[in-house]
Amino acid sequence: MTRNSHRSTRRRGIIFILSAPSGAGKTTLINGLRSIFPEIELSVSWTTRSLRDGEVDGRDYRFVTRRQFDAMRAKGRFAEWAQVHSHLYGTPRGPLNLCVQRGRDILLDIDVQGDRKIKRLYPGAVAIFLLPPSLRELARRLALRGTEGRETMRRRLANARDEIRRVIEYDYCVINRDVKEAVAVLRSIVEAERSRTSRVTRWRMERLRARRARVFHDHKTQRSG
Predict the structure, then answer these.
(1) I want to staple 106 with a disulfide (CB 3.0 to 4.6 A). Which of 5, 88, 99, 144 is the partner?
(2) What is the pLDDT of residues 105-120, one digit of tens each?
(3) Residues 114, 84: Cα–Cα separation, whole Å
């Protein structure tokens, strides 16, 4: 339901999945969405890749060794995991279960491999694919980063083509031509999904009944007068 309606109803928490090719502007849009809905938690994935400039361990990712990752995976504590660009990424299962049970929403920043696995485990999850305006624009954005070499850029663009082919598997598609417009679309998706009656676990109609009783009383008073 919407922000205010949680006072009168209870619902299951929603797992929002956001996938996008590298360079599509996913981080910017996530920040924009969470500035509107700060109560949406952000799932922190585990990864074996190195820490980049500006990243904080525990906020952006849990940066771990291959041995630590394998131990977590062996215990079945990942809802999904995948190898991307020669590095391992995994989504911890515990925070997802907790959010769904307690009626809190959580956002997952995962790739197309992880989307299928999450949707199998959590059929009520909402999958959103973020598209760049064009592959040419995507290449331009990657070049502006200045962090990848020519071979890395070539590989990322090739992966992007493969990922975009799977957009039909997602519930929603958002084209990031303009940040404000894209954030507005994401906001609409969140509000619509929160309003689904199928997510409600308990209706509380006390306020509605009280209002109907008052209206009936007022109407009866007018007639008797």
Answers:
(1) 99
(2) 999 998 888 899 999 9
(3) 11
